[in-house]
Structures are given as C-alpha cells and as structure tokens.
Specification:
Layout: E1 4-12, E2 15-23, H1 30-37, E3 48-50, E4 53-57, E5 60-64, E6 70-75, H2 78-85, E7 90-95, H3 105-117, E8 121-126
Parallel strand pairs: 2-7, 3-8
Antiparallel strand pairs: 1-2, 4-5, 5-6, 7-8
Length: 142
C-alpha cells in the first residue's frame, strides 16, 4: 500500500511555500522513502532536492527520484498545483509514524508538531530549475 498524502499552501518566513506530507497509515516504508529522497531530520539544514515534484495536470503531482523517474503520484488541489507548476518551492515532508488516510486537519497539525519535536519526520525542499529562456535583445537606444 502506498503512502497517504496531504497538500497545502502556507506563508512562511521565506515566502509562500507548497507543502506535501507523505505518511503511511501503518508507518510502513516511509523511512526508506525518506532516505531515498535524501530528506533530513528536523532541526538540520533542509536539503535542496532539485526538481523532485512535477505537476502532471491540475490536481495530480508526481514525486520523482534522484534519477528523475516517478516514485509515486499524489492528489493535489488546483491552487497548489498551479503554484508548483509556476515554479514555487515545495517542502517535502515524510512522516515516519502512522497517520490515518483522510486524517482531519487538527490531527495532521498535531502529527507534524509531535513529529518535529520527536524527530519523527524528514524534510527537504524541491525547486524547479530556473528557466534559461533568453529575454529579447534590444538594439539601439531605448
């Protein structure tokens, strides 16, 4: 069984960030997933993962491995999808403890708080590579 997922947008001290939480209802396999993705423990510098989240279409995103191959597909809201597709950063969070699918927001918030203080979540930042598109050259005085 694949992990459950939760997505949301939040304003942080670093500006707007899309969050993606992955957790398994029985806590299975998430430590391996976190290691495969190169995520860090709370309190450590967040690793820059590169372009690990791709929006396939509004409402669907793919988490990719280091080789760029798809690891899993997740449901995502349209605003979240548009933000990420537009180049917004994604905080990728993997919980090591069980969390029920469709857990309500208060339960997810408590899970994140306890996971952070207890060292039971892993984190990283995924960003799209900057576009190399050239701006048109102007000739002559402006």
């Amino acid at each position: 069984m694949r992990p459950a997922s939760w997505t949301w947008l939040d304003d942080t001290a670093f500006g707007p960030v899309a969050f993606l939480l992955l957790a398994h209802p029985q806590g299975r396999g998430t430590a391996g997933l976190a290691a495969l993705l190169g995520l860090a423990e709370p309190g450590r510098r967040l690793p820059e993962l590169g372009d690990r989240i791709a929006v396939r279409r509004p409402g669907r995103a793919v988490v990719r491995g280091a080789d760029g191959g798809p690891l899993l597909e997740v449901a995502a809201g349209e605003r979240w999808s548009a933000f990420v597709a537009g180049g917004g950063p994604v905080a990728l969070v993997v919980g090591l403890d069980p969390l029920a699918r469709r857990a309500p927001l208060p339960e997810v918030e408590l899970y994140l708080a306890l996971g952070t203080t207890g060292g039971r979540i892993r984190l990283g930042i995924s960003r799209r590579a900057p576009s190399r598109a050239r701006s048109p050259r102007r000739s002559g005085p402006a």
